[in-house]
Amino acid sequence: MRMMKWGAALLLLILAGCSAAPQHEDEAAAMVNKLYAALQQQHWNAALDMYGKQFYAGHQRDAWARQLKSIQQKLGPMQGRQLIFKRKDPRFHYDVYIFSYRVAFARGESTDVVTVYQDVSGGDLAIVGHKITLKAGG
C-alpha cells in the first residue's frame, strides 16, 4: 500500500513537470523586442546588456559588438523585422524560448534565431543564443 502511494506521488510529480507550460513567453518576446529596438537605434550597450553570461561564455563582448555594428555598416540601417516562428521549449529546470525573424536592412536582409533562457526557480531572462545569417540584397 505504501509503495502505491509513493508511486502515485511520483507519477503526479512527473506529470506536473511534463505538462507545465513555459510561464514567461510574453516577457521573453518583450526582451527580444527591446533587443531589436536597441539594435535598430544603434544603442549597442543597451543591446549587449541583454545577452546573458551563458552567451558571453562563448562570445567576447567586444567582438560581438563589432559584429553587430559591421552588419549595419554592410547592409545599411535596419528597416524592420518579420517573425518567422517562435517556439517554447520547457525543460525540467529551465524554459527556453526560440524566436526566428527575417530582418530587413536597407541593402539586404538576415535570418536571425534568438534564444532566451530562464531558470524555472526564478531569475532574470537572458538571451543565450543569437545566430545571424546574412543575405546580401541586389
Could you please describe the fold and organization of this structure?
The structure is a single chain. Helices cover 42% and strands 35% of the residues. It is α+β, with helices and mostly antiparallel strands. The protein has one domain (24-136): Nuclear Transport Factor 2, Chain: A, CATH 3.10.450.50. It has a 4-stranded antiparallel beta sheet. It is globular. The N and C termini lie far apart (73 Å). Mean pLDDT is 85; it is low at 7-22.
Please name the defining characteristics of this protein.
single chain; 138 residues; alpha+beta; Nuclear Transport Factor 2, Chain: A; four-stranded antiparallel beta sheet; 5 helices; globular
Radius of gyration: 19 Å
N-to-C series of helices and strands: HHHHHEEEE
- Number of helical elements: 5
Which class best fits the helix and strand makeup? alpha+beta
Strand order of the largest sheet: 1-2-3-4
Instruction: Give the overall average pLDDT.
Output: 85
Q: Would you give the CATH topology?
A: Nuclear Transport Factor 2, Chain: A
Low-confidence stretches: 7-22
Write down the CATH class.
Answer: Alpha Beta
Q: What distance separates the N and C termini?
A: 73 Å
Share of β-strand residues: 25-35%
Largest sheet: 4 strands, antiparallel
CATH architecture: Roll
Helix content: 40-55%
Number of domains: 1
Shape: globular
Per DSSP E runs of 2 or more residues, the count of β-strands stands at: 4
Write the layout of secondary structure elements.
Blueprint: H1 2-19, H2 25-40, H3 44-48, H4 53-56, H5 61-75, E1 78-90, E2 94-105, E3 108-119, E4 126-136
